[in-house]
Amino acid sequence: MSAAVPAHDSAHHDDHAHAHPTGLTRWLFTTNHKDIGTLYLFFALAMFFLGGSMALAMRAELFQPGLQYLNPEFFNSLTTVHGLVMVFGAIMPAWVGFANWLIPMQIGAADMAFPRMNNWSFWLVVPAAILLVASFFVPGGAAASGWTLYPPLIIQQGISIDMTILAVHILGASSIMGSINIITTILNLRAPGMTLMKMPLFVWTWLITAYLLIAVMPVLAGAVTMLLTDRHFGTSFFNAAGGGDPTMFMHIFWFFGHPEVYIMILPAFGVVSAIIPAFARKPLFGYASMVYATASIALLSFIVWGHHMFTVGMPAAGNLFFMYATMLIAVPTGVKIFNWIATMWQGSMTFETPMLFSIGFLCLFTIGGFSGLVLAVVPVDITLHNTYYVVAHFHYVLVSGALFALFAGAYFWLPKFTGNMYNESLGKLHFWLSVIGFNIAFFPQHFLGLAGMPRRIPDYALQFAEWNMWSSIGAFVFGFSQLLFLYNVIECIRSNRKAADNPWEGADTLEWTHLPSPAPYHTFETAPVVK
Ligand code: CU
């Protein structure tokens, strides 16, 4: 891990009395945005493998019909913790890791605005994750409700729910502190001359994401607090017998939950907007429209939550409102897809691993967007809601969307993070196995859902056997190919293949117009040297 930060020439420090903290002290007490970014990224990677193991356990159970080796209650717990670990433990911390590394450098700041709070933000995440995972080992086992924690089921379960609620509170506090830090950094610490509309898009997308986080995290905290008082303090917010309404939980949860989806995907838009111009050797097409589209998506995300609840029964006017509002999101998203394609149009493209993952993102996230549009149609959703079609949809959004963009960003900035070049052939192999395994795992789930296979079940009827077998095979190909990424990252850190100032050579000439190309979209040049 220590090699993740460029080593200092110790001779330069001989005349200083102080010594940089090393080892555990360095990582526990660090206030350096790069160290904290590294902590977030490695933590997210560990959680990604943990959540992935849970997914593979479920896919092994579903390989063929009939109960193999998981008892149904434990299977349901796996669905809950897999979801929570991937959302709160893997994807969100990974984006915060990128934010820590990149935002100060991309706006020309020396560090984050509140370095010590930054340390606290990270070290809160760890006990929360421990609580989540430890909930497997208490009497009754982890929550079997799915990550949405719906009452009334959740009211009756054991102490693991209280652990999950506490974990959510801690994660929320961490996210809010992180967001305050990011917003303050971006608004106050930009280098002279860097106006808002000159910021790299990753900074823009994170600025908007941070506002989303601050808006919805307290709402989630309120929802789980009401669960807690319903469980232990005699309230009946969600208990019909006491005059409450379980549907209210769904409204509150999804008022958080839908923007949460965009919290995971907006930084992905920023990363892809950095990578595609670099490998197409053209400036990003439609910068301003990208900013406005991101903001529009964020605003719309607050008024579409009802699309998660079409099956509970709402007035027709409510259903129609949420249906049309949801469809409206396709407009700014379409603007973005158009801009990325227009950026590549007539570019002199090369296809190194970051670009491959970005193009994979573009194609597959679009499929996830389209299946979202399908599910936005009320009568269609009522038919498909509890089926594998929904599972297929959100994995196209979150795996080939958020995760692929994370990989793209990781390969793109590994040379910057480590000072070394990763193994390109291995990276490409990782991409191709991922994209093939992912599609074999999740595309058939559309068919399973359309054929009526319910989600969140450990067993299924015989007619679903074949596609489930394919899905499990794909999941294992996808899962094990992630070990290539792990190996590549570690090997890159330890290698001595020094990366060039611009590791993406060939970006210097625009053959198609014979004009000098713009600087690659990462703007590290603006970072002051801090010794
Ligand atoms: Cu939604």
Task: Indicate the topology.
Layout: H1 23-29, H2 33-61, H3 72-107, H4 115-134, H5 153-156, H6 159-188, H7 201-232, H8 246-280, H9 287-300, H10 316-328, H11 330-344, H12 353-376, H13 378-384, H14 388-418, H15 424-450, H16 465-494, E1 509-510, E2 515-516
Antiparallel strand pairs: 1-2
Helix pairs in contact: 2-3, 2-4, 2-16, 3-4, 3-6, 3-8, 3-14, 4-6, 6-7, 7-8, 7-9, 8-11, 8-12, 8-14, 9-11, 12-14, 12-15, 14-15, 15-16
The chain binds copper (II) ion.
Overview features:
16 helices; disordered C terminus; binds copper (II) ion; two-stranded antiparallel sheet
Q: How does this model look, in words?
A:
- The chain is an all-alpha fold and 531 residues long.
- The chain has a domain at 26-199.
- Helices cover 67% and strands 1% of the residues.
- It is built from 16 helices and two strands.
- It has a two-stranded antiparallel ribbon.
- Helix 12 runs parallel beside helix 15 (424-450).
- The structure holds copper (II) ion.
- The site of copper (II) ion (CU) has 5 residues, from helix 8.
